Backbone:
């Protein structure tokens, strides 16, 4: 092979190497781009539901971790571990703004409350939930569906309680009822299990505060009046018991005295009388004993 042919062969070899390197780089870059756009991370405590443009919604779900999907597939995430929904007046308590809302009461009042709910999606129902809500993920369903009905659902429970019950009464009972009711409603409607639902604070306006203060004052006055009535009643009952005891004692004393007189009367016999007369004659001369009393006559 001539020198010229060798140079041509070297140039050809170098050119092939460059082309191969470019192709390899393209493949690597393509793989990286593919991974960037088609690798999905499912967070811990979530399940991923897969939608394929060619095959529709898949029945199998993705567990937490990294997953490579096809370009024609989308993954929607649903929390299956405890999640918090916090709706409070003060953003320091969890909300980004004033998310408190008003609920109705049995006495036709309307009172603003702060609320929190612990929930999770039922793991076995996430595919059906995704189908039912046409591609919405778990967070979308909470924000656009659950939040919109939350106020009315809670009011369906609070209308069984007065304003004072909610403000200062047995709130744990109310919260238990709310949890039970929301769990049933949201399980059926959204595949959501409600673990705990609680009114955590109450925010009455000035007018409502005045009404509450008036009711508190009236309740305190009523309790004081009832306490005074009870005191008077107890005193009267005590005096009656004392009087009955004193009367009982007098009756028993009279009965005892009568019984004693009866015993004494029965003990005075003719023989006792004659003996008493004999003793009296011996000491005083002639005497006569009549009944229970001795009459001394000197003769």
Residues:
């Amino acid at each position: 092979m001539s020198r010229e042919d060798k140079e041509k062969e070297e140039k050809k070899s170098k050119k092939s190497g460059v082309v191969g390197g470019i192709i390899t780089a393209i493949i690597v870059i393509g793989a990286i781009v593919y991974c960037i756009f088609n690798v999905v991370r499912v967070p811990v405590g979530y399940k991923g539901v897969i939608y394929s443009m060619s095959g529709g919604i898949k029945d199998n779900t993705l567990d937490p971790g990294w997953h490579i999907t096809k370009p024609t597939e989308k993954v929607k995430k649903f929390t299956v571990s405890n999640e918090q929904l916090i709706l409070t007046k003060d953003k320091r308590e969890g909300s980004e703004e004033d998310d408190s809302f008003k609920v109705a009461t049995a006495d036709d009042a309307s009172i603003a409350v702060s609320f929190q709910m612990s929930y999770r999606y039922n793991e076995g129902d996430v595919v059906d939930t995704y189908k039912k809500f046409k591609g919405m993920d778990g967070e979308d369903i909470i924000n656009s569906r659950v939040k919109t009905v939350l106020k009315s659902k809670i009011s369906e429970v609070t209308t069984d309680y007065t304003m004072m019950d909610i403000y200062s009464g047995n709130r744990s009972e109310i919260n238990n009822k709310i949890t039970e009711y929301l769990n049933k409603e949201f399980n059926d409607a959204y595949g959501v299990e409600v673990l705990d639902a609680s009114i955590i604070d109450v925010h009455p306006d000035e007018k409502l505060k005045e009404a509450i203060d008036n009711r508190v004052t009236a309740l305190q006055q009523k309790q004081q009046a009832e306490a005074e009535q009870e005191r008077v009643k107890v005193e009267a009952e005590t005096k009656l018991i004392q009087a009955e005891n004193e009367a009982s004692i007098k009756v028993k004393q009279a009965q005892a005295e009568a019984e004693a007189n009866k015993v004494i009367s029965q003990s005075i016999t003719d023989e006792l009388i004659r003996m008493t007369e004999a003793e009296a004659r011996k000491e005083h001369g002639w005497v006569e004993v009549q009944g229970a009393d001795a009459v001394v006559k000197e003769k």
Notes: Helices lie at 3-38, 126-132, 138-158, 163-168, 171-190, 206-267, 270-284. DSSP finds seven helices and eleven strands in the chain. The longest strand covers residues 110-121.
